[in-house]
Amino acid sequence: MLSNTSKYAIRAVIYLALYSSSVKKIGIKVISSELGIPTPFLGKILQMLVRHKILDSSKGPNGGFTLEKPAIDITLMEIIEIIDGADSFDTCVIKTSKCSHDAPCSMHDKIAPLRREMKSLFLTETIADMAIEFRQGNKRIRI
Length: 143
Known about the structure:
50% helix, elongated
């Protein structure tokens, strides 16, 4: 359901929540290397998050990226909407357009409850939640 771009964005923000601070910014090459994301592609993702005030960036020898707002205030849905758009959970799994109630596809009624559940999870799960689970060594989370 999530694009690779959204997955990369979420991973990068979790990484920054774990390892950066207002006094310790992380350079793009470090993030790229640690997460295995191509630097040019990651740069576009991070700049998009900077424009939406999720991240802060600075140039220079001590430059890099850090969170602009607290990790507890950043939901996964906020990142997904920035990257994939607000209607990312409304796109039909069969058609290339939005599935409507008037003319539903054959999967519409089967997948609708799953979409609602996923959307609810992404609206409530925060970057702080993900970072805490990672710090505790939860094997479900791999950055």
